[in-house]
Amino acid sequence: MPRFGIAARIALIVMAALVAVQLLMVAAYVAERRQAASNPPFTPLLGQIAALAKLMERVGPQERALALAASANPGFLPRLVDAPPGFRTPAMLRPAVRRVRALAGLGPDRAVALTLIAGERRGSQPVHRLRDLVGARLLAVIQLADGRYLEVTAGGDLTVRLMGLPVGLLAGILGFLVAIAALIAVRRETRPLSDLADAVGRFGAALEPQTVRERGAPDVRAVIGAVNAMQARIADLVRTRTLVLGAISHDLRTYLTRLRLRLELLPEGPQVEKARDDLDGMRALVEDALAFARASFSSASDERVDLARVARAECEARRAQGAAVTLAGADAPLEVRGSPAALARVVANLVGNAIAYAGAAEVRLAAEDGEALLVVEDRGPGIPAAERSAVFEPFYRVEPSRNRESGGAGLGLTIVRQIVEGHGGTVAI
After folding, report:
1. What is each CA distance from 171 to 21, 41, 298, 327, 359, in whole angstroms?
2. Is 349 within 8 Å of 414 (Cβ atoms)?
3. CA 334, chain centre distance (Å)
4. Which residues contact 328 (CB under 8 A, 6 or more apart)?
5. pLDDT at 3
6. Is residue 400 pLDDT above 70, yes or no?
7. Whether residue 376 has pLDDT greater than 80
8. 301-422 fold
9. CA separation (Å) from 41 to 20, 245, 376, 405?
10. CB-based contacts of 363, cutoff 8 Å, min separation 6
11. What is the C-alpha separation between 286 and 247, in angstroms, rounded?
């Protein structure tokens, strides 16, 4: 059996809903027209019964038979009987009884009774159950002045009329229910795409495969399978890159240590000092590259971290090194969920940048709208507005040189952005 794609499924659902609504409306229209042609509305029906009762009072016995025959039709069957009504008027029809008395000018001494009787298929018994209203007929009995009783049976389905709901309104309600069912069906077909979008969003933040169960239309299943495979490949590539960078970093550290030892054995001089500075720059570059690789792959932890404590520790360490660092808003705990080491790296990079370019840093913590706000300000030369987004790119620096004295390798803010976005936050200048 062929399986329809999602586009065909949605189209079929919408078309089926429209066809169902149209069929319901047509059926309601036909039913209403048929009922309007055969049965008068309920309120005019009371007036017709009252008018016939008044007519019976004014004509003689011979004319009564003629009047009854003239007013009879398939939906209105009057007759004269000698027995009083053998039923009691239900509570819902008591206002109708009062209406008939008023229209016919009858006093309280005259017996007037109304009830609903079920259709012939249900034995023509008084209605006691809701389902018996389908096809029910109105039975009215009015006592005349001579002691006889006028009995009128009004045929047809009076359920809708008595409830005060036109057939068209009921059809509209049914159409609304059909539309809701169609929306539920469409939602069911598109739910796998929503799950896929959520999984891709989580994968972008954590770089850990977020496997989605393959379900739905064949083309949706194919997309989900392709995305699952892509996630696995990307995760493997990033993991492999991290391992390679880690191995390279380890080997470079070994060679850098050997070079450092050899420089220490050489006599002091300008060239030795320059070589020592170059080695320090190479070591810092290797550390930054490795930190960037780790930050781009590591996912945020669910551990509770006091960001105020992390900021205090970093600021105290900088002050111990002689840097001018101020901290505000860290008196009370400010807990977030994440990795303590990663968040400490964020604070260290931001404070380190401020000290490197301005010689001092002003750190402030606050809680705003359920989020933790970390602000690091400095009085340095600033960053042009056109370059404020570019500084978060790897190896980009406002000052283009790679001089360690004027800045690092251009990975500090990139690492900050990777960690912050991996924790579900944002970073801006």
Report:
1. 8, 19, 58, 69, 77
2. no
3. 31
4. 362, 363, 364, 365
5. 66
6. no
7. yes
8. Heat Shock Protein 90 (3.30.565)
9. 28, 87, 79, 96
10. 311, 315, 325, 326, 327, 328, 330, 347, 351, 374, 375, 376, 377
11. 11
Write out the chain in H/E/C secondary structure: CCCCCHHHHHHHHHHHHHHHHHHHHHHHHHHHHHHHHHCCCHHHHHHHHHHHHHHHHHCCHHHHHHHHHHHCECCEEEEEECCCCCCCCCHHHHHHHHHHHHHHCCCCCCCEEEEEECCHHHCCCECCCHHHHCCCEEEEEEECCCCCEEEEEECCCCHHHHHCCCHHHHHHHHHHHHHHHHHHHHHHHHHHHHHHHHHHHHHHHHCCCCCCCCCCCHHHHHHHHHHHHHHHHHHHHHHHHHHHHHHHHHHHHHHHHHHHHHHHHCCCCHHHHHHHHHHHHHHHHHHHHHHHHHHHHCCCCCCEEEHHHHHHHHHHHHHHCCCEEEEECCCCCCEEECCHHHHHHHHHHHHHHHHHHHCEEEEEEEEECCEEEEEEECCCCCCCHHHCCHHHCCCCCCCCCCCHHHCCCCCHHHHHHHHHHHCCCCCCC
Q: Give this prediction's pTM.
A: 0.47
Q: How far apart are CA 399 and CA 285, in angstroms?
A: 16
Q: What is the pLDDT of residue 48?
A: 87
Q: What is the pLDDT of residues 9-31, one digit of tens each?
A: 777 777 777 777 777 776 766 66
pLDDT at res. 232: 87
- The residue with tokens 């009076």 is 158
For residue 346, the model assigns a pLDDT of 92
* Mean pLDDT estimate for the chain: 80
The pLDDT confidence band at residue 180, using thresholds 50, 70 and 90, is confident
Q: Quickly name the fold that domain 207-299 has.
A: Helix Hairpins (1.10.287)
Distance of CA 116 to the CA centre of its chain: 48
C-alpha 72/C-alpha 246 separation (Å) is 101
- 281 token code pair: 């720059």
How high is the pLDDT of residue 299? Answer: 57
HSE-CB at 266 with a 13 A cutoff on CA atoms is: 15
Nearest to 139 by CA among 95, 82, 96: 96
Q: Averaged over 353-368, what is the pLDDT?
A: 91
Tokens 């047809």, located at residue: 156
